[in-house]
Protein: Inosine-uridine preferring nucleoside hydrolase
Organism: Huso huso
Amino acid sequence: TKKLLIDVDCGVDDAQAIMMALAAPDVQILGITCVHGNTSIDNVCKNVLRVLKICKRLEIPVFRGASAPILSDSLNAGHFHGEDGLGDFPDPEAPGLDLIHKERAVEAMIRIVTEHEGQVCLVATAPLTNLALAVKIDPSFPEKLKSLFIMGGNMESRGNTTICGEFNFAADPEAAYIVLKDYVCPTYIATWEYTSHHKLSLDFCHSWMDQNTEKARFMKNIFAYSMEVIKGDRIKKEMIGGDGFLSCDSYAMAAAIDEKVVTEYIECAVSVELSGKLTRGMMVLDTLDLLKKKHKAFVMKTCDLEKFQCLLMAALK
Ligand code: BDR
Ligand code: CA
């Protein structure tokens, strides 16, 4: 059984990734930690509880984490995920924040990873603030992990938030820098370009959400806002190469669940630009090995779309 710890800023694609993990066989979710990002930390906590409620898995512990980046001003992605992070489709009977654990996310992360040393696969689909704090509080945190899967960064200097910055890295560049500086466990990265090179067709999207289940109806409702943005936004369309949609966070989750989903990696050290006027938050690939870093990351290059789509389909069954 794979033991997962999931760190999210629960927007629509985080919800998709969580639902994928909940549906996967042989996966145990040890906890879900929340962090600022797509929306406020309170909304993130609420959204995770809503997803767990729909999936009837409210027994999974949820922890509240950092409410702002380490140094940068806060960003959010309300223009894409809706102001509340889940398409502004409220649930009047959503579980209350009293279900969030008293223990803070960063402490919970360190505790869980220490209790299950060498066994936890951490999937981070959000700004890396919680992870960076965990590394600073417990420098042995990365080496206690089995593996780390990140949705974030870029590999062809194309951003989706700034010219060269993907949202999760642009939202807290210092955090991304710290995490990638100190990683010592196998680290797998699903960049913005990896996701956009493997976009899903709108036909797939409809057959996915038209499944006759409560989970699929929930998805259709929370995804409606983003679908309108995708349809109407020329720049967004150009960025992903025509019609289609991306479930960014699900690409990282799928790789964590089934290693066969990724068919090729670029293996090299990576880092994050912190000071460039145009490039702050950009991930850089050290393919020439000039940084002489001991640890290399696995930057995802190609994806088995069929396997990926099967995992997505199962998420809404
Ligand atoms: C990432 O940014 C967020 O808006 C998504 O949830 C995803 O984690 C994509 O750049
Ligand atoms: Ca996310």
